[in-house]
Structure formats: structure tokens, C-alpha cells
Design goal:
The longest helix has 53 residues. The protein starts with a helix and ends in a 5-residue tail after the last strand. A hairpin with a 4-residue loop joins strand 4 and strand 5. It is mainly alpha-helical and 256 residues long. Helix content is 61%, strand content 7%.
Length: 256
């Protein structure tokens, strides 16, 4: 029952990381943390987003049918305790090996799907993440390593070794997913800090511009000094224009 959970968990991690940083993922286009609503994008986005979830439901049904022996006319004792090598080396017809095949299909689909998702996540962590690494061998590679280990654990055919190898591979895959989630948390925290920094810069620039607008500039002070000055109180005041050196008589009414 762990296979469908891991499949949906890894897909959601990849989807949310790419959406948060507006990086195109699995044919889905993002901009400013939201899906771009193109003419052909909504239907394609709906199919791609729900394809993995539908696949998880199918794998869940297959595991139920295999673990509880719900396959009609098939009850193989080797189902669930043997790997692909035993399935291939078995000389019986494929109709007699359906139960073993169904028990191995769920891990196989998980390996194929997680292989693609882990490569996409590794590429994102190497080229697009906020925390830049010096080489391709960085912590974002861990989920791909866990997927490979899980796939190798499904190969062993002997029923004495398969339970150990399959469970060990599953444990390595779960640990690798946990490690990647730690890197995702670091990346999102760094992105949030960078966003807050840009917001502080914008607020500081607005406050500085408003302060500069309130205080007069030297040019404005010089222009105010060059304005006409009125002297005298009475019925007539003489205004002297300093800038042109001219005088004008302006009739005024004194208010005593």
C-alpha cells in the first residue's frame, strides 16, 4: 500500500516546487506561482495533473487484488515474495504467472514514474534552485538514487533474498524522499527571504522618494528667491522683479 502513497507524494513535491518558482513542469506552464491559462493549456494541465493520481488509484487496486488474492483462478504462492528474475526464468505459461506479474507491476510503475520525477527535481535543484551547488552531485540527487535502489531491489528472484532486497530498497527510497523534502524546505525558505528583501527595498525606495518630494530642492529655493517682492503698505505697492530688473505699479487695498 506504500507504492501509491509514495507516487502521489513525489509528484506533489515536484509540482509544488516548480509552481512556486514558476518553472515549467511536465508540459504545464507557470508564471508568478500560477498556472498560465493558455488556449491549449487548461485541458492539458488537467490531464497531466490528474494522470498520476489516477495511476495511483490503479496501482492501489492492483495491490489490493494481489495481496488479498482477489485474482480469479490464480493463487500463486510466489506472488509477493519473488522478483523479476524468477518471473522471467519460470517455465510456466504467462497465464499461470499472472498473480506474480500483478504483484510486480505496482513497484515497476513506481520506478518508472519516480525515475522521471526525480530527474526533473534533480535538474531543478541543480539549475533553478535558490541555493546554488557547485556540481551535479548534490543533495537533490538523493531521490533518484533511492528510486534506483528500489528498482534494483525488485530484480532479485530468490524468495530468500527478495523480501530483504525489496524492503531495503523501499527504505532507501523513503529516506531519499525525506532528504529531498529537507532541500525543498531550504529552497522555499530562501525564496521567501529573497521576496521579503525585495519588498523591503521597494518600501525603502518609496519612503525615500516621498521624503525628497516633501523637502524643497536647491533649485526650488533659488526660484522662490527670484519671485517678485512687494514692499510698502497702503493703496499702492511697488513690486520689484529681481530677475528682469523691472518695476511695476500694482494697486492694492490695504486692510488695516
Amino acid at each position: 500500500m506504500v507504492v501509491p502513497i509514495l507516487l502521489n507524494a513525489t509528484y506533489e513535491i515536484c509540482y509544488l516546487v516548480h509552481k512556486r518558482r514558476s518553472v515549467n513542469f511536465c508540459g504545464i506552464f507557470f508564471d508568478e506561482g500560477k498556472r498560465v491559462k493558455l488556449i491549449s493549456n487548461p485541458a492539458r494541465s488537467f490531464v497531466l495533473r490528474n494522470l498520476v493520481r489516477a495511476l495511483g488509484i490503479i496501482l492501489f487496486v492492483l495491490q489490493i487484488a494481489s495481496n488479498f488474492d482477489l485474482i480469479p483462478n490464480e493463487d500463486d504462492e510466489l506472488a509477493g515474495i519473488t522478483g523479476w528474475i524468477s518471473l522471467i526464468q519460470d517455465k510456466r505459461s504467462w497465464n499461470e504467472k499472472v498473480h506474480i506479474l500483478v504483484s510486480l507491476l505496482s513497484p515497476a510503475f513506481l520506478v518508472l514514474t519516480d525515475g522521471y520525477l526525480s530527474v526533473a527535481l534533480w535538474r531543478y535543484g541543480t539549475t533553478r534552485a535558490m541555493v546554488v551547488h557547485s556540481s551535479y552531485w548534490n543533495p537533490w540527487f538523493s531521490m533518484l538514487f533511492g528510486t534506483i535502489a528500489f528498482g534494483v531491489g525488485q530484480i532479485f528472484g530468490q524468495k530468500e533474498w527478495y523480501p530483504l532486497s525489496s524492503n531495503l530498497g523501499l527504505l532507501i527510497l523513503i529516506i531519499s524522499v525525506i532528504l529531498v523534502m529537507g532541500e525543498v524546505d531550504k529552497d522555499m525558505e530562501a525564496a521567501a527571504q529573497f521576496t521579503h528583501f525585495l519588498s523591503d527595498v521597494v518600501r525603502a525606495s518609496f519612503s525615500q522618494s516621498s521624503t525628497m518630494q516633501m523637502s524643497p530642492s536647491p533649485r526650488e529655493i533659488a526660484l522662490e528667491e527670484q519671485q517678485p517682492q512687494f514692499r510698502g503698505v497702503g493703496s499702492v505697492a511697488v513690486a520689484t522683479d529681481i530677475s528682469h530688473g523691472q518695476t511695476a505699479s500694482i494697486e492694492t487695498f490695504a486692510r488695516m
